[in-house]
Write a structure and sequence with these properties.
338 residues, alpha/beta, eight-stranded mixed β-sheet, seven-stranded parallel β-sheet, 11 helices, 19 strands, elongated, binds pyridoxal-5'-phosphate
């Protein structure tokens, strides 16, 4: 049975985005952040496409995300960003995925296994990672480190913090097979930031992290909703919860099968559009439905309407970040195309 809500996925755009990021990564290998189910698009399908294109390094947040992609790629190419808890050990040892160790406790836990790992160093973001002082104190001694990494806090802005983090990361004395600093925005900062391996997420999926990516990164995810009902709303009558939209004149209204439970959050009320800008959203967004003005068109019950979801534009309209727009896409979409 066909679902009344689809996410059309452009696999060629995904691949083209990865190729552009790989090219911008210079001599560094280009990996892919596929945490949160491939930023909401479907991690398994993303990994399948990108590994065909030549991607060998994949990043997830938690161990529970490894099993979904390990039928597709060798898990020796998977890194788990949140490190290793005691409860993760039995599963972790059945795979060859690597934890990204973030704390001295995690280092102690993993050292006993004598297996390779990755290590995150905090260079100023104060989120995850060992301190520069931990490294100087010898916390990493005796570990077999595949990738030594850090994460940029402000790479999407022209902030002095970028150069400061780059300097702090470059100064770390630790032996590792590879070093990695740049996310999508970091890749745009240039090859002093790309080291041996890059870790883009957002830009793979059509997000524009910085102006350098405009014109190169293509939209990947296209929501499409079916029309459940079409009605004519008389001048002076209202539409939806709170009666917040009152028709100034007779208006043809289509009710689409998408709502805030599908990630189309209430920030789109009175701000979103569908059908390439032709159909403005009217009134509030409901959980499962949204009303759009289709006056002057021949849109009817059962037709499919594209929901405008160019990420920078949809972000400006809704007040949501490009990341939230992707990861908030719910489970009810039939994901097609990858
Ligand atoms: C999520 C994440 C990335 C990818 O970041 P984008 O901004 O989506 O490109 C890279 N590295 C780490 C450590 C992350 O948590």
């Amino acid at each position: 049975m066909d679902d009344p809500l689809r996410l059309r996925l452009d696999g060629n755009a995904l691949t083209a985005n990865w190729r552009w990021l790989a090219m911008r990564s210079g001599p560094a290998a280009c990996g892919a952040a596929v945490k949160a189910d491939g930023y909401g698009l479907g991690a398994r399908a993303v990994v399948r496409r990108l590994s065909l294109a030549g991607c060998r390094d994949f990043f997830v947040a938690n161990w529970g995300e490894v099993a979904g992609i390990s039928p597709i790629v060798p898990d020796s190419g998977v890194s788990v960003l949140h490190g290793i808890r005691p409860d993760d050990m039995p599963y972790a040892l059945r795979t060859s995925a690597r934890p990204v160790l973030n704390t001295p406790e995690q280092v102690v836990r993993w050292r006993l296994t004598q297996r390779p790992c990755d290590v995150m160093i905090d260079t100023g973001m104060n989120r995850l990672g060992l301190s520069v002082q931990d490294v100087a104190d010898g916390v990493l001694d005796g570990l077999e480190i595949d990738t030594l990494m850090s994460h940029l806090a402000c790479a999407d802005e022209d902030s002095p913090m970028n150069a400061a983090q780059l300097a702090a990361f470059s100064a770390i004395k630790a032996s590792a097979r590879r070093r990695s600093l740049a996310n999508s925005a970091g890749i745009c900062l240039g090859n002093s930031y790309t080291f041996d391996l890059t870790r883009p997420g957002l830009a793979l999926y059509g997000g524009i992290p910085r102006s350098e990516a405009v014109g190169h990164i293509k939209q990947v995810a296209f929501p499409e909703a079916q029309v459940v009902q079409v009605r004519c709303v008389r001048a002076g009558d209202s539409v939806g919860y709170g009666a917040s939209f009152v028709a100034p004149s007779d208006t043809d209204v289509a009710i689409l099968n998408i709502g805030y439970a599908d990630g189309y959050l209430r920030g789109f009320a009175g701000a979103g559009t569908c059908g390439q800008g032709r159909f403005p959203v009217l009134g509030r967004v409901s959980m499962d439905l949204v009303a759009v003005d289709v006056s002057g068109s021949d849109v009817g019950e059962g037709d499919w309407v594209s929901v405008d979801y160019d990420l920078p534009a949809a972000s400006a309209a809704s007040g949501l970040s490009q990341y939230e727009l992707l990861t908030g896409l719910g489970a009810r979409y039939e994901r097609r195309g990858f």
